[in-house]
Write a structure and sequence with these properties.
Elements lengths: L2 H21 L9 H7 L2 E5 L9 E5 L4 E5 L5 H16 L9 H16 L2 H7 L4 H8 L3 H17 L6 H12 L8
Parallel strand pairs: 1-3
Antiparallel strand pairs: 2-3
Helix pairs in contact: 1-4, 1-8, 3-4, 6-7
Amino acid sequence: MNDRFLYDSYRDARDVVWKVLTRYKVVDFPVNVSRLAQKLNIDVNEVAYLPNGLYAVSYSDGKKNYIEFVSSGNVAVDRFTLAHELGHLLLRHKSASSRKEYEEEQANIFAARLLAPMIIIREHDPSSAAELSDIFGMSASSANIRFNRYLEIKKRNKFLTNSLEKEYYNIYKSGRVKTYSG
């Protein structure tokens, strides 16, 4: 994949995250992904088994969207999995797509940014990936990736450079509506 294609993938996922966070006034972290899915009229169901070794699937029956997942036994991992599947639905990915690798990466981008938006990481200014993990309820591996990215962006001071980010940040700062709690 070329650099432009990768940036477009990132940008699209990032922008959808900011729109969702803004529209549903998500200001409490860790994000309650199940409750957010409910607000989006998406049914989330824990199941005992999925075929082909899958841990989660998302799909639509034409009237309603669904996420089914097999619990990993780790709340942070399950939250990322649900956010990833939510990304597939909101980014309108098709399950039989020939762009599977692209869509998986884009759903991962969506999940990481939904669970720990960079501007909110800046507000907390964690000193380690472990601290970021505690604040945002993320797995150690996800938190490590986000923390390293945070350090890069912090060094370049690249916060609040997008109008969608600014709009969401104003909602977060106002704190008028406390819609979710971890």
